[in-house]
Amino acid sequence: MGAVRSVLMLPVRVVTGVGAVSVGLPAALAAAGRLPADAARVIEAATDLVIRIENLTAEVDRVASDVRRTAAQTAEIVDEARQAVLEARGAIERVDLVVDEFRPAMRDAAPLLTEFTARATTRNVAAVVDALDVLPELTGLVVPAVRNLVELIPELDLVIERLDNVGKVVEGLPGARLLMRRAEAAAADS
Fold this sequence. Notes:
Radius of gyration: 59 Å
Helix content: over 70%
Strand content: under 5%
Number of helices: 3
Shape: rod-shaped
Number of strands: 0
């Protein structure tokens, strides 16, 4: 009986289905009519999105290029700083050696320097600075004079030798000893 009922109900279901289709058909056609406009809006939004993505990609490429350039410059600066640190370490080691060598002398000189700084006045310091300013000029005058004296040494040796000879001759003169004793006594009295 259930099968017969199903068969008998079949025309009713067909009519109901057709009615439902006829009711939904205008809505479906209206939706289908909006489909090209909706598709155009979706395509336009997608196109705008692609353009924005391309612009962002270009900006990211520029930023990445700047970052690479900055990283290269930073690496260069780091290398230079590393080299400067190595050179500074070498200089510090050399200074340490010098300081270690002169440390005992500096300890010994510390009391003298303390006394010097306690007694030194601005006038003393100014005098030392003035003397240092004049030193090159004085050196220019003294060095030639010393050279001339060095050139005279052989001649001075000859003069001394002759004076010795004259002294021996004078000692041999009668009364020379008496004169020498009187000169010694006069020198002792003064």
